[in-house]
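Task card 7
Instruction: Convert sequence to structure tokens.
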Amino acid sequence: MQDNLQQLADKLGILTKFFDAGINRKEYYPPEKVIRFFAESFGYKAGSDAEINASLEKFAKKRWQKSLENIYVCEQGDIRLDIVVPVPLKIDDARINLKYQNTESNFSIPLEVVVTGEEKEIGKTLYSRLELQLKADLEVGYYDAEVSLGGKKYTTRLAVAPKRCYNNEDLQNHKLWGFAVQLYSVRSERNWGVGDFTDLKNLVWISSRAGADIIGLNPLNVLSHDYPENCSPYCAISRLFLNPIYIDVEQVPEFKPEDIDVLQGEIAGYRNAELIDYPGVYRLKIRLLEKMYERLLKDKKSARMAEFKSFCKEQGADLDRLAIYQTLYEEKTKTVWGGWKAWDEKLRNPASLAVKEFAKEHENRVGFFKYLQFEAARQYDEVAQAVKDAGLKVGLYRDLAVGVGQDSAEVWSNYEAYIKDAGAGAPPDAMFIQGQKWGLGAFNPYTLKEQGYEPFIKVLRANMRGAGAIRVDHAMSLMRLYIVPNSEDMGTYIMYNFADMMNILAIESYLNRCIVVGESIGNVPEGFIPALERKNIDSLTVLWEERENCAGDFKSPSSYPENAFASVGTHDMPPLRMWWFGYDIEERFRVGIVPDEETKIRDYHNRELDRWKLLFALDSNGVWPEDNLRKDNYIYGEAYPEGIEEAVHRFVSRSASKVFLAELENILHVEKMQNLPGTWRECPNWQRKLPVPLERLESDIAYVRNINAIKRER
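Output:
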């Protein structure tokens, strides 16, 4: 690669080489056209030598062309800003006036000015860069700041972070445990074929009776209204709002029992089906909720209508744009293929007059989509209240997806905040030689800072609401994210302002009293885990990853990381019973991820060895149930060791990790996985229900025995 393109890539945080997470650490070099694509995405032309050189000069001048940055993100005890001002300098009167968040609290404090000695001539003016240091202790949060210097005033925003993320004292004094649950998969004798907020509320009380203090959930964000079959919870249309499919229609205040008199058979069909019928369930709920919205509109002076209006006002422009997007999409999908980017240009801009006119013409439908969020939020808040009433020490542990669909309301609403025509994915590895294209919209690190990190702050705040903990999916994205141009097969890593992202996360964690867990399984950069630890961000660990030298013996529970949430697996990994028999290997072979018979046989041989290693670890730690000790060697996985779930749960529960999460799939002996990464329509991903309804869960013998096994160690 030519030197000047390398220099530009280095300055812009575009990696020109990277390594995979394999044992041999294979090195990859993205094509130059990919480097040029991202440089131009960030506003720096890179098509020729002349353009690259001009871009290098542009980059060198950029900081000198404005007095203050749009935002400064600092830690308490080390609050400093830099300012660019014309020479000669007048610094004796330097002060800063601060207004805390959205309050009327104003105060002024003096500044210590440090002359850095850095100067640059722009045009015919000589500028100097000064450092402004605040010696006062400031409360955690956001401030509107006005700097007075040399008789002039300059404005910016100041974000003051705590040294560490929120610390739940119960986690310091107790080793807690809880459930990991895919809410959609919860089966009950009353839901309509998809787990809902009432099921979640009931699960809170089940957890309380079991002694569990945390409920880990899949992302709950709103998905496509027009294509409910696109059911991956990790590809939302907005991470700011909830999925209406989780509304319990029978608990909506506008519901009348006669609404479903003739629908009992249809509802029972969805409830009893083996797999979730997303289109059927969603459209049935929408049909009934439309009727209920019309009832609400008939009494415009009711208390319920006042609450609805208050909710809409509180949610403001973000709710407006989601509802308008959904209304537009519903209308345009009838005649236009290709999502919002295929709409008329004037409709691609949410602030355009055409969009405003459309919203006015379709006011009732826009209002309906707001109503869905109003009721979803009300029912979710009831769950959060149940957590408080039940006394769960942590409560809801929500999952924040790494990105949002490119064809989404979130991207449409603020296209400038995202890297255009590119999506997040995963780099090449042994399983996916070409890498993975998830197609998720990824923040543009430069626009994100220019917007004061507001899009990131909103997403954090929305997903911490009502939660005692949050899982940051693919937490490495706080530092770097593998992004692929839509037109290419290979991408590269884009660097983010790691310090700023971590501090913003810490601010929201502190303000919302929410523990942060960073999902950091995969290609983890050197030094990343220690950086999380310094910020009091817990890591995530699973049995299958706690091995000596990646694929060696299973580690002792005492050697598990202490500041971690531990589990047997995740939604992307096979449940224990499926793993034992190797059904996951056969499934990967069926869909072509395992490329040939030879590789499949090799994988089976490796699995046989892993089974022996697991049995050895369980034997060595004496965790088999006393009334169901291991009876055989189970060579080639031809039989299943009774009691192995209990033994494994005792094994991981015994770990040093502060939290253990038990997956209901493992408790209930499920042998099919929720999601097979790298597949879409080939497998029924995100559609599998739990085998036991909530009403019979506490009397189920597998549940009883496994809960007792966990409680022996926690």
